[in-house]
């Protein structure tokens, strides 16, 4: 069953940031779509329900951005 996750992510400021976050998260298992919005510091992720939230957060962090809980 599809699940939508919205994360607050600090450090995104431009289209390059948007693309880096989207690419990093999109390659994870179970991720169906990713939409990063730098102006709102949000990343909206749609998964098939099998994605690991910790892995998603780690992928974003590895790109140099901060996930705010």
From TrEMBL:
CDD domains: HMA (cd00371). SUPFAM superfamilies: HMA, heavy metal-associated domain (SSF55008). GO terms for biological process: copper ion transport. Transmembrane segments: none annotated. InterPro entries: Cu-bd, HMA_dom, HMA_dom_sf. PROSITE patterns: HMA_2. It comes from the Bacteria. GO terms for molecular function: copper ion binding. Residues 3-68 form the HMA domain. This is Heavy metal transport/detoxification protein. It comes from Desulforamulus ferrireducens.
